[in-house]
Write the structure tokens for this entry.
Amino acid sequence: LGVQKSPRPIKYVDRVYGIEEMDKVFRESDYIINLLPLTAETRKRIDKHYFGSMKKTACFINIGRGPTVNQTDLVDALKSNRIGGLIADVYEEEPLPDDSPLWKLENVILTPHIAGVSPNYLERAMEVIRHNLNVYASQSGEMINVIDCSSGY
């Protein structure tokens, strides 16, 4: 299951919902992977409403942008066992403060913002850079991975 601002079919994804139907994914899934970009619309978007929709055994995985999650609501859901667990690589505040309750919870795995690390990262990034430089220099073709400043990502 997936969620997109403008839902469209995606290879290997059974169903893609719009943002307004995101709670369906939270209700149905055993694992929720948050990859939201940080925009005014997504700041603290994942809150007690969504944590309250999750299965008690479900795991929330946060590898998008930390501030897209209301961390107070997340901690409450974890402490009360409203959700099964958390795997987090990003946080509302980074680095995660020493006094964060997340450090002491047993149903939590924390990593230091390294989820994007891959042995192939540089090679893949260089492919995009080479392609876009060629498009720029030749003034022909379409650039890839272009940022849309109006959407914020």
